[in-house]
Design goal:
The protein has 95 residues and is an alpha+beta fold. It is built from two helices and four strands; from the N terminus they run βααβββ. The protein has a four-stranded mixed β-sheet. The longest helix is centred in the middle third of the chain and has 20 residues. It is globular.
Length: 95
Amino acid sequence: MSLPIFWTDEAKETFDAIFFFILDKFSEQSAKKFLKQANKILKIIKAQPEIFEASIYDQCRKGRITNQTSVFYEIQNDQIRLLFFFNNRQDPLIT
């Protein structure tokens, strides 16, 4: 099952914030590595939406991009909605 991915506004904003944080605090190489890994995980989610663990909310799933970052998404009938990207060093919003 391959579903199209829809980026919410919050997903776009949080992805950009993490990308630019990495670029600013570390290096361009680290930011590119994050981008490559995020794309890899999104391809996996697109091909196998239920591969990552479900949170306490049945429809919300958490995919680990790196040890420091995750993506939260939900599976709908005809698409995957990216909800937001999360810095794992923050206090968790959803478990």
